[in-house]
TrEMBL record:
Its EC number is 1.5.1.38. The gene is ssuE. InterPro entries: Flavoprotein-like_sf, FMN_Rdtase-like_dom, NAD(P)H-dep_FMN_reductase, NADPH-dep_FMN_reduc_SsuE. Transmembrane segments: none annotated. The keyword Nuclease does not apply. This is FMN reductase (NADPH).
Length: 176
């Protein structure tokens, strides 16, 4: 199984990066190969102008095409997933998530934003043809801390990520 992590955050120094690191540990522990896309590091003009032909965009869209599992990471602002993530999702083919499992992971300031993943992000994932979408893993930002250069993730979050990964693995096994 191959995964791609699409990080729709705005900085490599955010708590979302801490969650990404935890996801990478999980993928390594389960011997899952993966690629990573940091959307904010892609060419801004290509994203904003929807330049499908930009070589960097083409290369990163290919990473999504080659994956069995898509892991979407996003902060929640003003009740919605990040516009940074949206600029990349808009560049995917209409059925860019077809035959793939998608794991939406979001971080926000309070539990009040939990439903934003369901009403804002899931419809886009559905339109992109995802075969299997897990329940979102929503993280309240205070559950991710940073001590020096090390992120500390609350054990509950790690357990939820592991449980979600097991669900995806079972789904993938059943499809074979």
């Amino acid at each position: 199984m191959k995964a791609v992590i699409i990080n729709g955050g705005y900085s490599v120094n955010s708590r979302l990066t801490g969650i990404e690191v935890e996801v990478e540990k999980l993928l390594s522990k389960t011997n899952t190969t993966y690629d990573k896309i940091l959307v904010h590091k892609l060419p801004a003009e290509a994203l904003i102008t929807a330049n499908y032909a930009n070589p960097v965009i083409v290369e990163n869209v290919k990473k999504v095409e080659d994956a069995d599992v898509v892991i979407l990471l996003t902060p929640v602002f003003k009740g919605a997933y990040s516009g940074i993530l949206k600029t990349f999702l808009d560049l995917l083919p209409q059925k860019g998530f077809e035959n793939k499992s998608v794991i939406p992971i979001a971080i926000g300031g309070s539990i009040a934003h939990l439903l934003s993943v369901d009403y804002a992000l899931k419809p886009v994932v559905s339109i992109l043809g995802a075969t299997h979408v897990t329940n979102p893993v929503y993280v309240v930002d205070k559950l991710v801390t940073r001590v020096d250069d090390v992120y500390v993730i609350d054990g509950e979050i790690t357990e939820r990520l592991e449980s979600t990964w097991k669900q995806v693995s079972r789904f993938a096994s059943a499809r074979v």
